[in-house]
Write a structure and sequence with these properties.
The complex is a heterodimer.
Chain A: H1 3-6, H2 29-36, H3 41-55, H4 67-83, H5 99-105
Helix pairs in contact in A: 3-4
Chain B: H1 2-6, H2 21-30, H3 37-64, H4 66-73, H5 87-118, H6 125-128
Helix pairs in contact in B: 3-4, 3-5
The chains are: A mainly alpha, B mainly alpha.
Chain lengths: 109, 137
């Protein structure tokens, strides 16, 4: 486990690009989600942090998991949940890549 | 094409911005949900309430004197007493002393007891009797 994964901190999207980041995340996860946000790393990063923070309060994380173990479970569960979907890539925060966004573009019709 | 061969396997994006302290701090704060029990409650709820209490207490200490601030906070002196020069912050501190402080300390005590009662017999036998010495976290 790397130093990054040893602390209780949400890993940044750019950390997840590396094989030894300490998290089991698909290698194309980061490029896909940044591409989805129009190549805007800052926006994608904010939404990623929001996603992990939300997942930390779900049953995807073990009730007794604390600190970095909880972070690891949340990161892996969040990326797996987003990837295991025919919509991928999509963002649950800004709804981009989903039907809701297309509806918004055409004024809800 | 030369460039496409050289770029094979690379991420087709601009490099990310440099990781600076505010970003790291934000990711640290957003990771507070990783904690459970008393630690989570103290970090997420307890710290802001205690911070607000401290601000009220210091304001009163400076405005009305430290002895008066203490007496008002724990309800020895009325905020309407003659010894209180500025009654407005003293009233707030008095109310906070009645409501906020017992809430914080009572909740901590409650959480500690809940952990002690509810935390038993939750681990699996494999977790307790592991080969590689202790839990995996």
């Amino acid at each position: 486990m790397t130093e990054q994964a040893a602390r209780t901190i949400i890993p940044s999207l750019s950390d997840l690009l590396y094989e030894r980041c300490g998290y089991t995340v698909a290698s194309h996860f980061t490029p896909d989600i940044v591409e989805l946000h129009g190549g805007d790393w800052v926006k994608a990063e904010r939404h990623w942090e929001d996603i992990v923070a939300r997942v930390l309060d779900t049953d995807a994380v073990d009730r007794r998991a604390n600190g970095r173990r909880a972070i690891k479970q949340a990161v892996e569960a969040a990326s797996a949940f987003l990837l295991d979907d025919e919509l991928w890539p999509w963002c649950p925060i800004c709804q981009c890549g989903t039907a809701a966004e297309q509806e918004g573009e055409t004024g809800g019709r | 094409m030369q460039s496409s061969t050289a770029n094979r396997g690379r991420v087709p994006l601009q490099p990310p911005p440099v990781d600076r302290l505010p970003g790291r701090l934000r990711r640290r704060i957003r990771a507070l949900g990783a904690y459970t029990g008393v630690r989570h409650w103290l970090l997420v709820r307890g710290t802001p309430i205690l911070g607000a209490l401290l601000v009220l207490y210091v304001t009163n200490g400076i405005a009305n004197g430290w002895k008066t601030a203490y007496d008002v906070a724990i309800g020895i002196t009325s905020p309407g007493d003659k010894a209180v020069a500025l009654p407005a912050p003293a009233w707030l501190l008095s109310v906070a002393g009645w409501l906020a402080a017992p809430a914080v300390f009572g909740a901590v005590a409650g959480a500690v007891v809940t952990v002690a009662i509810g935390g038993r017999r939750r681990r699996t036998i494999a977790e307790v009797l592991s080969r590689n010495g202790g839990p995996s976290d």
